[in-house]
Design brief:
With 96 residues, this protein is mainly α. It is built from 5 helices and no strands. Belongs to the SKP1 family. This is SKP1-like protein 6.
Length: 96
């Protein structure tokens, strides 16, 4: 539903930046185009290769947009980081 005071063609998403939303839309488009292929798996792996702060922004966006599939995919990366490395490495990576 569009409120009367929303005269422009935009939908405000206060918890999601335009940069993050662009990445989310890129993810959605690829998943519509490629379905379940090896190319999609490669895209997903590359999609997750972002700085930790950007990954956190994407997790917040997926949660805010209630996209369970994207959220599940995004939460794999922090889990693997925590399992594979000690806390010093995680702190160092988060300060890049």
């Amino acid at each position: 539903m569009v409120k009367d005071d929303c005269a422009s063609n935009t939908i405000p998403l206060p918890n999601v930046s335009s940069k993050t939303m662009t990445k989310v839309i890129e993810y959605w488009k690829k998943h519509l185009e490629l379905e379940e292929t090896d190319e999609l798996k490669t895209f997903d792996k590359n999609f997750l290769k972002v700085h930790l702060s950007e990954l956190c922004d994407l997790i917040i966006a997926a949660n805010y947009l209630d996209d369970k599939e994207l959220l599940d995919a995004l939460l794999i990366e922090p889990e693997e980081i925590c399992q594979a490395y000690n806390i010093k490495y995680v702190k160092k990576r988060s300060n890049e």
